[in-house]
Amino acid sequence: MNHIPDALYADREMTTWLIVGASRGIGLEFVKQLLLREERIIATVRETHALHASMLWGQAGGDHGRCQMFICDVLSEASIVSFVSQLAADPFLKIDYVVINAGVLRYPNRATELSFDEFAFHLHTNTIGPIITAQKLLQTNIPIGTIVFMSSDSGSAQNFLEREDGFAAYSASKAALNQMLRHMAAELKRKDDDTIILALHPGEVATDMSNISVPWQVEGIITPEQSVVAMIDVIQSKGIQHSGTFWTWQNQPYPW
Ligand SMILES: NC(=O)c1ccc[n+]([C@@H]2O[C@H](COP(=O)([O-])OP(=O)(O)OC[C@H]3O[C@@H](n4cnc5c(N)ncnc54)[C@H](OP(=O)(O)O)[C@@H]3O)[C@@H](O)[C@H]2O)c1
Known about the structure:
Helix content is about 35%, strand content about 15%. The chain has helices at about 25-35, 50-55, 75-90, 115-140, 170-190, 225-235, and strands at about 15-20, 40-45, 65-70, 95-100, 145-150, 195-200, 205, 220, 245-250. Strands 3-2-1-4-5-6-9 form a 7-stranded parallel sheet, with helices on both faces. The chain has a two-stranded parallel ribbon with strand order 7-8. Helix 4 (about 115-140) runs parallel beside helix 5 (about 170-190). The longest helix is centred in the middle third of the chain and has 23 residues, at about 115-140. It holds the Pfam family adh_short. It comes from Coniosporium apollinis (strain CBS 100218) (Rock-inhabiting black yeast). One of its GO terms (molecular function) is oxidoreductase activity, acting on the CH-OH group of donors, NAD or NADP as acceptor.
């Protein structure tokens, strides 16, 4: 499971994607869509999914060795370091696109009610884990084209969604993610590092996360397939001049 076969990297012209958090929802859909596109994929799941995750790729008709699975739990620094060091052991690996998709929403999470631990859980999973995963990847010698963070319209400070009762810790964690990734982009620019850093809002996507009963009307719900097909195009349309910017699945710039 943790060895990258030489065959996977024999054709250096193939595009390689790394999807962090690929067991369900949007992350799993990335794997399916990329398999259909004949791309090469490194997908991570948590330990609990390791036994059956490779069967998930079969939903796209078999991976033909183009999808490799690794274990990464973004709540654990040791897990992140172990995962990244396994990738770094391959001197020929290059990654064109990294999608840091892992995230949680435990609804409701109101500022006036939630516990210390519930707040920390959202921050650790949605902010600290994703940023440290990117940081550890950037500290290797692996050439990386683009790192995409799965953010949310809930994380916009400027376009504050007052109706979103019960989303306080979630939106705060995505706002913090946004601010950290902007700093990451600015730091990389100062170092003349060409890795592109992007934030994406995937839309209102029908997944386990959004399968909650909220008292307001959620407009424009889309399928994971609609979201991911569009996001792949958004990601591939961006260059270094876009590093440190925030986009929707419909390729519209979104306010921080
Ligand atoms: N759905 C939406 O409408 C929507 C809107 C805006 C933003 N987003 C963002 O899009 C991303 C994907 O959401 P989704 O809707 O696909 O949610 P989902 O169906 O609940 O899937 C969440 C994914 O994140 C993984 N994950 C959670 N905690 C993790 C951890 N500690 N380490 C590694 N992986 C972990 C899950 O793995 P396990 O199976 O192991 O739990 C799962 O693969 C999230 O960042 C979310 O905030 C979603």
